[in-house]
Amino acid sequence: MELRDYNGTGRWSRDSIIARYRQYCRDLGVPEQTDITPPEQSEGDVRWVYPMMHEVIRGIEAGDRACIALGLDFIEEDQHFPFGRTIKSDVARALRRAELDEGQKERARRRIVSMLIQGKVPHEYKQYAKLLRRVGVGEHWPEVEARVSRENPYVMRWFRYFRQAFGR
After folding, report:
1. Which parts of the chain are beta strand (E)?
2. Potential cystine with 120: which of 17, 65, 115, 161 (Cβ 3.0-4.6 Å)?
3. Residues in Cβ contact with 15 at an 8 Å cutoff, skipping those fewer than 6 apart
4. What is the DSSP-derived secondary structure letter of residue 2?
């Protein structure tokens, strides 16, 4: 049987994500409230395993703290995934609507600011920018002003967006 698994490998394999979800539940002292098992479909000799991050997104939207932690892990990841651009946008959108604690807000800030400074502003950065706007830039604005590449028009678009959003 041919297997078409749209989940990642290594740290982002199905088994690894499930193990990390369970570990986050234990670490946070919360019950496993979301079934993050990915949907599967079989037809003939082909079995498809769809991205389980869609289930994690549903958990984020339901307020599952372990899913929120997985979502933050996912946006911090530079690895490319099948449908990654869309899924990363959806994860950032779900995180924007979730109740994040201060540590989680800081993780999001560090990642989004770091991407801007490095000049990494992919398609999903639009949703990352909205997430940063919601959680605030914190103490990172001086670093952004000092280190952002003013020669990169894509970076400058987001720099101007943040400057306007944060009244700087």
Report:
1. 2-5, 40-43, 46-49
2. 115
3. none
4. E
